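The material for today's practical consists of a large collection of protein records. Getting from the letters to the tokens is the skill we practise here. To make this concrete, we reproduce a full record directly below:
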Amino acid sequence: LWGFVRAFLDPLNRGTDAKGLAQRVGYFVSGLSYGALVIPTLRLAMGTGAGQSNGPADWTAKLLAEPLGKWLVLLLGLVGLVGGLGQMYMAVTKSFQKDFKSWEMSGDEMKWATRVAQFGLVARGLVFAMLGFFVIQAALQANPKEAKGLDGALATLAHQPHGPWVLGLVALGLVAFGVYSMMCARWIRIRAGQGAQPSARRSTHR
């Protein structure tokens, strides 16, 4: 729901220029990605998921069977890949800091929020980039089995040299992203730049 809210209502004030629209498309895709987990999770919890196959390979196969399906799958893969790389870029540049109510945060709070966010964004970006890469491979090879879900991406990491250690770091990173999300719930700046609070003009680090 938060992905769709960010995409359509723009509470983070991304705007309607090319960069802003690209970010809002990413939020929409994020909403779809998380939303797609709801029904399978409910089926599993209710014990009705056995024999139900709705994984990436299945929906990729359905799309590939449609006219222009190959190009649609390729586009989805590119969105995932670019989105993942974009998250890692955010981590390196610390551009996410602009969304914090920095005037309400102490120096230590900003420091730790930044570290946790960077770790989490890199891990999440890596997973999204891998998912996008697998979907692109499925489109180029016209083989839906090349498309992998989150479990497939993590399994691929586990089979790399030092795989268990890499997988463990990514797992910790995903936990860090969850913590970062909770920090956003506490400090995120809504409608930035539209009637900015007077307190925002004061020193940002106490």
